Amino acid sequence: MAPATAPSPPAPRWRVLVAEDSVVSQRLVSARLGRLGCEVDVAASGREAIERAEEGCYDIIFMDCCMPEVDGLDATREIRRSGGWGAQVPIVAMTANDEPGDRERCLAAGMTDYLAKPASREDLRRVVERHVPSPTESSEPRGAARPAGLETARVDMEMLAQLQAMEAAGSPGLLADLTRDFNEDSRERLDQMERAVRSTDAELLESAAHSLEGCASLLGARALAERCRDLEALARSGRLREARGLLPGIAREHESIMSVLGAVIASAPGPPPFEREGPLQVSCS
Fold first, then answer.
1. Which residue from 48, 232, 253, 260 puts its CA 20 to 30 A from 272's CA?
2. Do 18 and 117 share a domain, yes or no?
């Protein structure tokens, strides 16, 4: 009898462009879209999104609003001005700022729809199937291990359970990879925050807080995201003296969420996927 062969993976149902500067968000959104049967390309800036849109046709584009070089709104305007396919492709805004007027500004720029971060797999499914013809829905295993002692006030356990379910459904190592990317990115943002308060650079402080808030939300780090949201608001209003006082707490919260993520990863079978660095020291002198 001939040996059994593994079934071929299903053919992609949609071709999707994700325009997002955060590596953590890129990986997570791409994994969730992949589970929906999407073939995903990534652009790390608004300028790259415009270039990729010129190179090939996509069924739908997910566009982060705050990106370097060219922001998502201007990138959308440029794609729309190109005419033809670019004038018709659905472009969905993705932003960590869900504030009054945001949706209207995105739609005015030519975007088709709007998603507040963090977008769940079901959020992405609804938007894709709203704007692109959909075949049958895919399924994803439910239920995830929860190590004892996790601080649920700090962490959205449902979000972590979704990530563990994605691992079990065919994305091995996803949470470890996301955690590694998050740790590297967040340490860079924390360093930017300290430099910003030292140089009284409110714009840099607001940008760093916004980026870290978005990444923290994607991994269910509630408390860290809330502290970053507070810092972003202070930076936006120019209250840098008050903002300076939040930095040590944000650094401590980062260390706490790394401990939680490490415990979740350690509860899974297999060797430790990464080594944590020591806590980041933030000076406010």
1. 253
2. yes
Is the domain of 87 the same as that of 169?
Answer: no
> In this prediction, what percent of the chain has a pLDDT beyond 90?
31
The predicted structure's pLDDT at residue 110: 87
On whether both 170 and 226 belong to a single domain, the answer is yes
H-only helix segments in the chain: 23-35, 46-55, 72-81, 85-88, 102-108, 121-131, 157-168, 174-198, 202-218, 222-236, 240-244, 247-266
The 10s digit of each residue's pLDDT in 251-273 is 888 988 888 888 778 776 554 44
Q: By residue range, what is the domain housing residue 192? A: 157-266
SS3 string, 239-251, reads CHHHHHCCHHHHH
Give the predicted TM-score (pTM) of the model. 0.55
Per-residue pLDDT at 158: 79
Residue 62: partners with Cβ closer than 8 Å, 6 or more residues away: 16, 17, 18, 19, 20, 29, 33, 92, 94, 115, 124
Identify the H or E element spanning 278: none
